[in-house]
Amino acid sequence: MASVVLSEAEKVYIVHGIQEDLRVDGRGCEDYRCTEVETDVVSNTSGSARVKLGHTDILVGVKAEMGTPKLEKPDEGYLEFFVDCSANATPEFEGRGGEELGTEIVNTLYRIFSNGSSIDLKSLCINPREHCWVLYVDVLLLECGGNLFDAISIAVKAALFNTRIPKVRVLEDDEGSKEIELSDDPYDCIRLNVDNVPCIITLSKIGCRHVVDATLQEEACSLASLLLSVTNRGTLTCMKKLGKGSLDPESIFEMMETGKKVGKTLHIALQKTLEKEESLGTTRQKVGFLG
Amino acid sequence: MPLDHRRVPGPEESQAPLLYAAPGEEEAAPGREAAALRPLLARAGLLSQAEGSAYVELSGGTKVLCAVRGPREAAEGRGRLLCEFRRAPFSSRGARPRPGPAAAARERELGLALQEALAPAVRLARYPRARLEVTALLLQDGGSALAAAISAAALALADAGVEMFDLVVGCGLCRAPGPAGAWLLQPSEAEERAAPARLTVALMPGLNQVAGLLGSGQGGPPESWARAVRLGLEGCQRLYPVLRRSLLRAAERRAAEGPRSTGSSA
Amino acid sequence: MAAMELRLPVPRKVVSQGLARGSDKHLVAPGDTITTDTGYMRGHGTYMGDEKLVASVAGAVERVNKLICVKALKTRYNGEVGDIVVGRITEVQQKRWKVETNARLDSVLLLSSMNLPGGELRRRSAEDELAMRDYLQEGDLISAEVQAVFSDGAVSLHTRSLKYGKLGQGVLVQVSPSLVKRQKTHFHDLPCGASVILGNNGFIWIYPTPEQKDEEAGGFVTNLEPVPLHDREVISRLRNCILALVAQKLMLYDTSILYCYEASLPHQIKDILKPEVMQEIVLETRHRLLELEG
């Protein structure tokens, strides 16, 4: 991952500040940086979103395609995740440099979506054993400024909220052969229910305390962090220790409580923003990449 | 991870017969104590060519073999710990996994989890410009495979004489199905398959520090997960003496064989 | 209490636009003809083509007598002798340190061009060479003055004064070098309770004002005692103010920073970075600066 070098004294300054609940940019330990979300930013997708969290910049596109259901789950569609760490974000990603981070992010995304309740996969089935929707979720890292995982999960949720899948009908003739017909009305589409899609909260342990939404500098001071995925009702669907260090058992329990609390706030804020954008509709001028 | 191109991957369309088993045919697992641990067998130092090695078996099926190579000189400046987790193609119950990017990515995730669990324990600062390679090979998956691999890898590292702050002990858990399902320690493969949530914890028992944590699924609110973590850590503490003893036994065996290196030079 | 500010993006406005007096500046893009008059001399950022003087960078045209240069608006740092810079050690070599100063090439700090503990006029011994990493190691920050510029553009630094040397606790902000105004002094103890070093290379160091002057940055023993909360608040506020000024492309010097600091006082420190607050306080700063100029 993109890394910064700090001197000992700078690290000490950051750690002491967190001890006193005043971070270098004036935030408290449980504050997020100002975040911007916009959906429907690229048009050749079924749904897309862009999230800017401080200097972290993420673009997610969702494409819906038709495929065959997996053998173990004949009556469900499925999601596929891909992450592209472009060298735009940091020169370290050039060539194969970003591959390791990319796999880690992809695996984490599969993990947080692997439980049955995040997305109603049955609604993605067109006809059992034969056709289903496959949602390809492509994540692009445009800039890395710390706290990648949280930003990516917000962007994925926003993009899924924005996703519109065209309606199809299965026509069966007398001989039992099936034909698929795509609705020709572009507004005749299904939306996904994203209420249960979790968001990731990464808590970085710095000194004796933990912070949410760490900047690159703060990440350089942290030896271990805990990644939690939290749903809007405050249940956890994934937990994972990241980093080279170890954690005290007690601090893990504290971090889980913080994660639950922060996660709920995050979901409420995100839902409100997405609904606001939708209600404004075409009256709002799109900002896109010219902001 | 390099793919094995020489091997014929088999027909695209083959499936394991288990897929066609009538649902509900399998007998329900007999009720068991949630905190019961399966007997764990460990043996350190059984491979002759690796610097360190260990084998861990959980009664009921899981078999992991782990080898450590190094420390040897690395191209890059700082000491590095590289971990690889491999499944034998026939390790799991269902269809043989097709070699491909998806399988490789899954193995890499477990390799990374292994690395993150071991990194806090290894004193890498003592090995500048060197790398340590840890390979865990899962021979048979009978549940709690990652946990067994963590324990085996820590044993193998210790067996290789690598400087460590503490051993690392892994313990697997899963949540029994049902709305109020209890967390079970060291689940078997069948329990793991049916479980809505799974968790692996790794503990450094001497320092009482959590080295690794990886779990997902519908485990419910944080309180439920916290219960699981507590239960898992307790399990690790109970497994610790077994692993420690196997390590000491390996050392004893070595001592009985006589100091090899000095013996040959004399 | 957890705070989460999530919003829809709005187009950014730069307040200095429109008000800018930059209209009298002659701006060119690469390939633009500056003049067809052959009487002028070719300076940095230009080339001669078919009897014409053509710009090779985007920026403002500057003319000194017969010499025409184009100064790029956004560029890495070009060292000049006497500049004050803040830099980060990237490598310890034999008898010298490599320093990252936002220049095209890494700068050099020779062991012989720095003050060592125990008096200024001391011969550098072999022991000193071995102990170089004890003085400065990779990642450490220093303030220094440019001693010489080599022909390839690399910069040689010196710290032969008590005001230069290793930096202790504080916050580094990196901005474009063009936004730092050249002044008599780049070390400022601001009346709001903190000090800043405005490096000509765009590295800005904000730190608590040291109590005794003589114990200043020159030492190699860093004070790792916790900085009091009040000082931290001032430093964080200054940091955010500087970022606000940079976002709105205002020049950085002691007065502009101080005015911005004062304008920001009604807001919470963490709110300063919100786009609308940034706009508001920078606009106020601008007005006061214009009043001052009269």
TrEMBL record, chain A:
Source organism, top-level taxon: Eukaryota
One of the record's GO molecular function terms: mRNA 3'-UTR AU-rich region binding
GO biological process: exonucleolytic trimming to generate mature 3'-end of 5.8S rRNA from tricistronic rRNA transcript (SSU-rRNA, 5.8S rRNA, LSU-rRNA); nuclear mRNA surveillance; nuclear polyadenylation-dependent rRNA catabolic process; rRNA catabolic process; TRAMP-dependent tRNA surveillance pathway; U1 snRNA 3'-end processing; U4 snRNA 3'-end processing; U5 snRNA 3'-end processing
A GO-annotated cellular component: nuclear exosome (RNase complex)
Gene3D superfamilies assigned to the protein according to its UniProt record, in alphabetical order: GHMP Kinase, N-terminal domain
Domain Exoribonuclease phosphorolytic stretches: 32-166, 196-261
Compartment(s) where it occurs, according to its Swiss-Prot or TrEMBL record: Cytoplasm; Nucleus, Nucleolus
Xref: Pfam families: RNase_PH (PF01138), RNase_PH_C (PF03725)
Keywords: Acetylation, Cytoplasm, Exosome, Nucleus, RNA-binding, rRNA processing
CDD domains (UniProt xref): RNase_PH_RRP42
Similarity section: Belongs to the RNase PH family.
Oligomeric form and interacting partners: Component of the RNA exosome core complex (Exo-9), composed of EXOSC1, EXOSC2, EXOSC3, EXOSC4, EXOSC5, EXOSC6, EXOSC7, EXOSC8 and EXOSC9; within the complex interacts with EXOSC2 and EXOSC4. The catalytically inactive RNA exosome core complex (Exo-9) associates with the catalytic subunit EXOSC10/RRP6. Exo-9 may associate with DIS3 to form the nucleolar exosome complex, or DIS3L to form the cytoplasmic exosome complex. Exo-9 is formed by a hexameric base ring consisting of the heterodimers EXOSC4-EXOSC9, EXOSC5-EXOSC8 and EXOSC6-EXOSC7, and a cap ring consisting of EXOSC1, EXOSC2 and EXOSC3.
Listed name of the protein: Exosome component 7
Gene source species: Pelusios castaneus (West African mud turtle)
Automatic annotation (TrEMBL), chain B:
Keywords: Cytoplasm, Exosome, Nucleus, RNA-binding, rRNA processing
GO BP annotation list: nuclear mRNA surveillance; poly(A)-dependent snoRNA 3'-end processing; rRNA catabolic process; rRNA processing; U4 snRNA 3'-end processing
Matching Pfam families: RNase_PH
GO molecular function annotations of the record: RNA binding
Stored Gene3D superfamilies: GHMP Kinase, N-terminal domain (3.30.230.70)
Compartment(s) of residence: Cytoplasm; Nucleus
Domain named Exoribonuclease phosphorolytic: residues: 37-163
Top-level taxon in the UniProt lineage: Eukaryota
Family, per entry: Belongs to the RNase PH family.
Listed name of the protein: Exosome component 6
Biological source species: Pelusios castaneus (West African mud turtle)
From TrEMBL, chain C:
Signal sequence region: none
Pfam family, one: KH_6
Residue ranges of domain Exosome complex component N-terminal in the record: 27-64
K Homology domain: residues covered: 170-211
GO CC term (a single one): nucleolus
UniProt subcellular location: Cytoplasm; Nucleus, Nucleolus
Record-linked InterPro entries: Exosome_cplx_N_dom (IPR025721), Exosome_RNA_bind1/RRP40/RRP4 (IPR026699), KH_dom_type_1 (IPR004088), KH_dom_type_1_sf (IPR036612), NA-bd_OB-fold (IPR012340), S1_RRP4 (IPR048565)
Main location: cytoplasm
An example Gene Ontology molecular-function term: RNA binding
RRP4 S1 domain boundaries: 76-147
Any one GO BP annotation for this protein: TRAMP-dependent tRNA surveillance pathway
Keywords attached to this entry: Cytoplasm, Exosome, Nucleus, Phosphoprotein, RNA-binding, rRNA processing
Recorded family membership: Belongs to the RRP4 family.
Subunit structure: Component of the RNA exosome core complex (Exo-9), composed of EXOSC1, EXOSC2, EXOSC3, EXOSC4, EXOSC5, EXOSC6, EXOSC7, EXOSC8 and EXOSC9; within the complex interacts with EXOSC4 and EXOSC7. The catalytically inactive RNA exosome core complex (Exo-9) associates with the catalytic subunit EXOSC10/RRP6. Exo-9 may associate with DIS3 to form the nucleolar exosome complex, or DIS3L to form the cytoplasmic exosome complex. Exo-9 is formed by a hexameric base ring consisting of the heterodimers EXOSC4-EXOSC9, EXOSC5-EXOSC8 and EXOSC6-EXOSC7, and a cap ring consisting of EXOSC1, EXOSC2 and EXOSC3.
Name this polypeptide is given: Exosome complex component RRP4
Organism: Pelusios castaneus
